[in-house]
Amino acid sequence: MRTLIRGARVFDGSGEAARPGSVLVDQDRIVAVAYGEDALAGVAADRVIDAAGKTLMPGMVEAHAHLTWGSSVEKIYHQFILPPDELKVAAWRNARVLLDHGFTSAYSAGALGDGIETELARAIARGETPGPRLVPSTLERSPEGAEGVDTGDVFNGRGPAAMRAFMDYCKAQGIGSVKLVVSGEDALKPGTAQDVLYTDEEMAEAGRAARELGLWIACHAYYPKAIALALGAGARIIYHASYADSVAADAMVAAKDSTFYAPSPGVSIAALEATPPPHIDMSHMKASAAERMALEAKLVPALKARGVKICIGGDYGFPFNPIGRNARDLAIFVEHFGYTPAEALVAATKLGGELMNLEVGQVREGFLADLLLVDGDPTADVTILQDKNRLAMIMKDGALYKAPAEVAA
């Protein structure tokens, strides 16, 4: 199947300005990208889509996905832990919701059930259920901290040997990225974000095992010591890092060729805006969110200016921050971190593709045909990506998940 998308304004994901052009897709790949009002005119194709001036851009990448955090824009859960059967229903739904909103790839930041994401990733890959291509994870692994912090679970006990056994377990399960909660979490237990939940020896062994087994590590890390441990283990991505000092920032810059960063502000902004019922106290969560956003407003632009690869992804899946609102991160990057709309789009596309280590995130010859056709100009206003009705087309692997109205008809 050859599909020609003609007459679009093409934003290729590189950061270059959008310009008139056409794109030819053959099977699952982009085989031609040409610019000009009549580009690729006369090229033979089985299907022709007239973009009529809409913006053609890469599918977005969610770099901090929690598909087993149940709440989505379609169904809110007021409990965090779900029974196994309902957890699976929620995860499958959330994968579809994420794709509905233009996210064609997702990098997991941990799950609430063991084995569920590997099953989901296989089902998506086989075409049995709709969803973004997924780098799956397992239960977030976090031992108790000095103050009894417990934001995840522990497999196989403590110590370097237990950490090696856990990494072996993940490899056998088909995990792509192992989530290690290295810091505590003030939003859950006030005053614990600076707790370090792993020893130097455990993190060093995790890094050795990951390199040998071909696994990635994703780390929840707030303070300098936790950031240092994550970098020492060769983390693929670090989440939050809100309290990084100059030494930690320098270390993140030194690792910029191998380690990505996702500040994850979506959950902070949603917490600040939340209006819970009187019996739910979010005061400590709101205080933590305000402090983190103030710090990140300085940290994120500084790291970006020094070349750190910063991705979107904001802990979506809470009832006050449901999956389906993920594109809001782009607007937060613009409003709070000083990004231009084009820079925010690059964070959501090109840099996400590099995180996935796949040929996605760019409208580029040879890349996988993960494409969005947007009714409007997100390079001028990224907020339009928060409205799934503005997505006239969603293409994944060259297949039309959502076809333009005239093609569907």
Description of the structure:
There is one protein chain. Helix content is 33%, strand content 19%. Strand 1 and strand 2 form a beta hairpin. The protein is of the alpha/beta class. The strands form three sheets. Strands 1, 2, 3, 4, 5, 13, 14 and 15 form an eight-stranded mixed β-sheet that branches.
Low-confidence stretches: none
Helical residues, percent: 25-40%
Strand elements, count: 15
Query: What percent of residues are in strands?
Result: 15-25%
Rg on CA atoms, Å? 21 Å
Q: Could you say which overall geometry the principal axes of the C-alpha atoms support?
A: globular
- For the record, give the distance between the C-alpha atoms at the N and C termini, rounded to a whole number: 18 Å
- Which sheet architecture does the biggest sheet show? 8 strands, mixed
What is the string of helix and strand elements? EEEEEEHEHEHEHEHEHEHHHHHEEEH
Q: What class, by secondary structure content? A: alpha/beta
Mean pLDDT: 94
Count of helical stretches = 12
What secondary-structure arrangement, pairings included, does this model have?
Elements: E1 2-10, E2 19-26, E3 29-35, E4 47-50, E5 55-58, E6 60-65, H1 84-100, E7 103-108, H2 116-125, E8 133-135, H3 160-173, E9 177-181, H4 200-213, E10 216-221, H5 224-232, E11 237-240, H6 246-254, E12 260-262, H7 266-273, H8 283-305, H9 328-337, H10 341-348, H11 350-356, E13 371-374, E14 391-396, E15 399-402, H12 405-408
Parallel strand pairs: 1-4, 1-5, 6-7, 7-8, 9-10, 10-11, 11-12
Antiparallel strand pairs: 1-2, 2-3, 5-13, 13-14, 14-15
